[in-house]
């Protein structure tokens, strides 16, 4: 759980850095699954440092990653921030190439939650560390930036921001609405994430969450794997009988979050 200071920092600024969450033994397993998971997903397109690779890591072949959504170190914090009925969505792995432009991770201020991001190598100001604009998860600042950033004649590194430097084992938690970027990323910046959504209640929140699902259904095609499922079907089967996952899936089906993800083979 977050301390009072960490919780207040997140609420005020939209992010918090958690140090040494994963121990060295866990990092060995995480790195091994990262390598095998991405190699399998992109067997047709080996990584050459020019194109980003992305895949969800929620199948039986990557058990460490697949269990992270239900890991209390993440799930309990997500529930602390957004309520006990928060929804676990996905765990993924990325091999980034170059800089990442300023953006939020949601299309609407009404669709929100927390993303836990962790890197598998040290990152700093000029090596791809996450940069965030504190407080930009709230309106009117969020929507003001939506209007300003596309026409802003400034390079990524010159926009006033906070740099979340981190070491392997650290996690940066941030609100999906927070504007963020990275600068100076290598040709193989290894970043993994776990995402949770708030349980939508208002009409705007429900519609925005459903639209987010529609957008997510296109992601495998966007990343050069059009015939792959968005999420490994074994995760949906929940053979472990995890009650949290059962509740998440029931609510997401109810919302129609997966209705356009035809490639899920549900």
Briefly characterize the structure.
The protein is α+β, with helices and mostly antiparallel strands. It has nine helices and ten strands. The strands form two sheets. A six-stranded antiparallel beta sheet has the order 1-8-5-10-3-2. It has a four-stranded antiparallel beta sheet with strand order 4-9-6-7, with no helix packed on it.
Features:
266 residues; alpha+beta; Jelly Rolls; four-stranded antiparallel sheet; 9 helices; 10 strands; 20% strand; disordered C terminus
Instruction: Kindly report the CATH topology.
Output: Jelly Rolls
Q: Give, in spatial order, the strands making up the sheet with the most strands.
A: 1-8-5-10-3-2
What is the CATH class? Mainly Beta
Q: What structural class do the secondary elements suggest?
A: alpha+beta
Q: What's the architecture in CATH terms?
A: Sandwich
Largest sheet: 6 strands, antiparallel
Please state the average pLDDT score. Answer: 94
Helix percentage? 25-40%
Anisotropy-based shape: globular
Strand content range: 15-25%
- Rounded to the nearest angstrom, the distance between the terminal CA atoms is 34 Å
**Quaternary structure type:** single chain
Sequence of secondary-structure elements: HEHEHHEEEEHEEEEHHHH
Number of helices: 9
